[in-house]
């Protein structure tokens, strides 16, 4: 394999380390947990809780948060329909890279349009995209309004020309048709972060994601 | 911490898992190894060899290859000066995410302009950006011409209107001024892939990257 003295012979490319080898090192299976739902539905709360639960089991995960990415990778994108689609496309591509690296990538974005989510799903091998729908009533999310955005939207204060509309108010949220996991009220009560994470972890354990 | 029966009280956000915790799990330090140099200088060869060497030591790395990314995350970019800059910016942002996730991210791109590389360096915490300069003579790279691109460039066949020029031929390569590692000929002989990887691994060991 030596190329000493024979520079023309260096094109031999070593076999790159493959996904399976990384997964064996980590004793888990790379995948994407894609959390979708209205603003205020608990996406970030679940993402954090799930990350912590996985860490406690010795599993490596990483959270891609829609808001955070807009400060970095997606900082040159606005909120037009095209920009929102590109925002989700890039996030899906990066999530796919993380899954290929062997990590459990937890993506947390409103991602209101079915076609954008399905495009992200299509990037991954079969069954490696776990769509989690935060199915919380709009009224509940609006009552929470953690960022004060529903109030602004109702007052018509975030309808700048570049803004397509606020999801749930003047832009639609398209619920998944075939998501892997649905988080919802139980007897009218919101599950705790720990309960929500447990629901996802149970699914992942049953599907064999938490071992290589 | 329970929010049962009190939906309005869910805004408490669990502490997200931090970089230090992931690094402890992996027993390594997240960082970016940024390999820059002419086409044909051996960037991909080093990236593969380094990835394999790290894997054999039980360390988790992931290669971001400039060409590969153009099939995914960067597939909507061409080769104008703006597009090349955006190509490198996005790669730098993703590399930063991988380093934050605790991985040793190996980025392999021609990245000919100093300002673009320095912008990527600036994204990372101090000393977490390891710039590796493949300092091989143009003549050697052109003799290798693994993709046949130098030949096309010399024949003027890749000067499409959208193309800024071919690095080394009609577009400049700006060598790093203060790179951490320089790979070069030794007594006129090209180092083997194993030797090149060893040079990088030695640096990383000395700097403490291979333990948490």
UniProtKB/TrEMBL annotation, chains A, B:
Its EC number is 2.7.1.25. It holds the Pfam family APS_kinase. It catalyses: adenosine 5'-phosphosulfate + ATP = 3'-phosphoadenylyl sulfate + ADP + H(+). One of its GO terms (biological process) is sulfate assimilation. It comes from the Eukaryota. Belongs to the APS kinase family. This is Adenylyl-sulfate kinase. The keyword ATP-binding applies. SUPFAM superfamilies: P-loop containing nucleoside triphosphate hydrolases. GO terms for cellular component: cytosol. It is an enzyme of class 2 (transferase). Keywords: ATP-binding, Kinase, Nucleotide-binding, Transferase. Pathway: Sulfur metabolism; hydrogen sulfide biosynthesis; sulfite from sulfate: step 2/3. Gene3D superfamilies: P-loop containing nucleotide triphosphate hydrolases (3.40.50.300). Residues 29-183 form the APS kinase domain. GO terms for molecular function: adenylylsulfate kinase activity; ATP binding. Catalyzes the synthesis of activated sulfate.
